[in-house]
Amino acid sequence: MAECHGDAAENSAEIAAAVAENAPIIALAGQPNAGKSTLFNIITGLSQHVGNWPGKTIERKEGVFTHGSAKYCLADLPGTYSLTANSPEEVIAREFIIRERPDVVVVVVDAATLEKSLYLVAEMLSLPTRVIVALNMMDVAEQEGFHVEPEVLQAALGVRVVPLVATKNIGVRELVEAIGLLAQGKTRYAPRAPQVRDDHREVLKQITVQIAEWTPAPYPSDWVALKLLEGDQEITRMMRETLAKDRWKAVDEILQAHDDALMAVASGRYEWIGRMIRAAVTRPRAGQIGLTERLDRWAAHPLGGAAILAGILGIIFWLTFTVGTPIQNWLSKYIVGALAQAATASLSGAPSWLSGLVANGIIGGVGSVLAFLPIMVIFFAAMGILEDIGYMARAAYVMDGLMHLMGLHGKSFLPLFLGFGCNVPAVMGSRTIESPRARLLTILVAPLIPCSARMAVVAFVAPAFFGAKAMMVAWGLIALCLAALVLVGVITNKTIFRGERSAFIMEMPLYHLPNWRTIGLLVWQRTLSFFRKAGTIILAFALVVWVLSALPTGELESSWLAAIGRLFAPVGQLMGFDWRLTVALLSSFPAKENSIATLGVLYGATKEGGLANALAAAIPTPVALAFLAVQMLFIPCMATVATIRQETGSWRWTMFNLGTMLVVSVVGGVLIYQLALLAGW
Amino acid sequence: MLERLLDLVQEGGTRRVEDLARELKTTPEMVEAMLESLSRMGYLKTVDGAGCAQCVDCSLACSCGVGSGKVWAVAKPVISNQ
User: Fold this and answer.
1) CA distance A447 to chain B (A)
2) Higher per-residue pLDDT: A185 or A55
3) What is the DSSP letter of B43?
């Protein structure tokens, strides 16, 4: 019988007494988060922190417990997924079992994730120790809708299986009894360990024969042979140093000839796990899982899913236009307008520049953006709900399917999807692409994805011009961006990627009812963040725009801003833009929302009727359509440009991107303007 | 089964865990366990694209990410013979 080890200075007097009495050693093994530490605390009564992450229980913890008249030492091994030397925890766990030879190893497995937990059991059964499986979290498994039969699992494994719920102290007494019986040799122990697959069995035998007499104690030679076959670095090093040169050469030649053995061994273990699961677990696929599968037949279907995604986007725009826009108009008219009038009245004695600065610059600019808050709140809430119920992963999957249908490279998937939120992480997301050329091209096309800031500007401006048809226009604009993206993507796919195919695997979360508290918190945080942006960058820019629009004469038409806008008049005229629309576009460079602030300053958000009415009265339909198209395709915002510079490490490529976007946006704007004129709109 | 899963993954394209489970005639839970194993062996890696420094103060950061699901990618570039 093994001795109970421990540093006497660190361990309690009780442990020291158990050591002296040669008490049997029981080891607790298991994956992280399987409930091992909870079980250890209940059995020993020692207080210990229950860790959630690998490494937290890396120190060996020991305790003592008594069953009947016998005392036992209990050692809590670090949480491990396997017994291959992938991590220090795994080395510690297996070295303990091999060197300390515990009398019983209790492998704590999570009944709710048996497929993952049984891998460690499979490895443990190959070691010269007696194993008990503690089937923990039976309650969670039941809650998640599947049923585990411990007796059947026990028969299939050939080792004692004890069901328990450690957190509720259910089944722990039975476990302790089982430990006592096995430690005292009163239970038959006949494990059905997984076998190496047929095609590698002979190889394993050859290696075992080669090393059998030279394997250093206390390592079992058949286990060492298996680990050599798996390519375990620690064991390989040990045997290379131990075996005579010629013998190692012979072993190494066998290993080199079977470098696929790791997969064969692991595959054999998963086939064994599959058999155990089929025998002992029933999953009716009802409840959440069943619902998710039924919904995904549509939501993740290449075409049906795309239609649903388009529908959801439509509903978001519809909500925005029917609920958000009237509130925004009301705020713009009665709050921003009234505030501006009040400011003008109270500053009637002050210099006219001050009154103009406050009423038109600050209130007109920032007020327009803040009035646009209801639209943002609806957008944040809609995205929050989609995220919370688990739909976003489906949206990503469907988008990727569409991109493949259109011949785009699959690796654009992650950047593409992230880009719908913000182009900055889209550019950052291209880091997942190994090929430098492919990464560069993905970075360069990423700004063509309509980010939510640009979509929000459309959500504000489109209803002002197009009323009931705004939703169709918004859809059309997103389609325009995606068409530009596909055009550039197809060209790059044909010329640069040349058939290179990427691979992604997505785990779809289960659908569930929205948690309104989480969504509310999210909307609140984003709203505060939006306020901060309005109070800093947008306020600063609104002031700059107003100052430039007031200097040097105080007249808008002869201002410096007008002069800047007129510099671009030749290009703007191709799309019917006057200098104010050109300036609004240019002002979107620091932040896309600045367009609204600039329109607010230049078209008079503070006038009666609000900004929307002012815009509708001043701008003809073809011009408005061209403005929105250019706004969507225009050069990316400052943060995205900075990220492009950072990720490409080149100003040349950054400038190339700005140039490309400028050309694409102007060509798109001119085409749409001319087509709208031809159509007589 | 593990080798067949790796072969399927290396064929390229984006697949759902459920699709792989259907092709391997097993459960999604089994595929997830094997994907995690392949990650530990270094054949696959989990992907996380969002959460950069620039996102900290972004009012639109809520719309980033691919939801609460996990995404794996092949750890080494795979060149198709097609």
Assistant:
1) 15
2) A185
3) S
Which residue, chain included where needed, has tokens 């719908």?
A420
pLDDT above 60 (res A509): yes
Q: How far is B42 from chain A (nearest CA, A)?
A: 10
Q: Which two tokens stand for residue A164?
A: 């328990």
> In A15-159, which ranges are E strands?
25-30, 61-67, 70-76, 104-110, 131-136, 147-148
Q: Of A415, A501, A522, which is closest to B80 when you measure between CB atoms?
A: A501
- Interface contact A119, partner B, CB < 8 A: yes
Name residues 597-656 of chain A within 8 A of B (Cβ): 639, 642-643
**Element of type H or E holding A642:** helix A638-648
Q: Identify the three-state secondary structure at position A545.
A: helix
A584 contact partners, CB below 8 Å, separation of at least 6:
A595, A598, A599, A602, A627
Strand bridging mode B13-16 / A281-282: unpaired
List the structure tokens of A274: 């599959």
Q: Which of B35, B58, B78 faces A505 most closely, judged by CB atoms?
A: B35
Nearest one of A658, A609, A666, A604 to A635, comparing CA atoms = A658
ipTM for the predicted complex: 0.81
CB contact under 8 A, B60 and A434: no
First to last CA, chain B: 24
Least Cα distance to A90 among A98, A102, A99, A78 occurs for: A78
User: Cis ω on the peptide bond leading into residue A284 (within 30° of 0)?
Assistant: no
Residue A287: how many other CB atoms lie within 10 Å? 13
- DSSP lists the bridge partners of residue B13 as A503
Which among B18, B50, B54 is the nearest to A643, CB-wise?
B54
User: How many degrees, rounded to 5, is the angle at CA B21 between CA B18 and CA B26?
Assistant: 135
Query: Å from A87 to nearest chain B CA?
Result: 10
Please check whether residue B24 touches A, CB under 8 A: no
What pLDDT does A417 receive? 63
Q: Which of residues 32-61 of B touch A (CB under 8 A)?
A: 32-37, 40-41, 44, 47, 49-52, 54-55, 57-61
Please name which of A323, A339, A327 lies closest in space to residue A372, comparing C-alpha atoms.
A327
Residues in chain A with CB shorter than 8 Å from the CB of B57 are 529, 532-533
Q: Considering chain A, what is the average pLDDT of its residues?
A: 80
Percent over 70 (pLDDT), chain A:
86
Residue A392, CA distances (Å) to A317, A495, A627, B31, B54 in order: 17, 31, 30, 21, 22
Best residue in A147, A296, A507 to probe B by mutation, most B CBs within 10 Å?
Answer: A507
Residue A604 CA to residue A620 CA, distance in Å, equals 17
d(Cα A92, Cα A85) in Å, to the nearest integer?
9
Q: Which residues touch A186 (CB under 8 Å, ≥6 apart)?
A: none
C-alpha span between A192 and A526 (Å, rounded): 56
Residue A8 confidence (pLDDT)? 41
What's the residue count for chain B?
82
Q: What are the phi and psi torsion angles at A504 (to 5°)? A: -130, 145
User: Taking 50 as the threshold, does the pLDDT of residue A192 lie above it?
Assistant: yes
> How many C-beta atoms surround the C-beta of residue A401 within 10 A?
20
Q: B45: which strand partners?
A: B73
- CA neighbours closer than 13 Å in the CB half-sphere of residue A132: 28
Q: Is A612 exposed, middle or buried (0-12, 13-18, 19+ CB in 10 A)?
A: buried
- DSSP string covering A492-519: HIIIIITT---EEEEPPPPP----HHHH
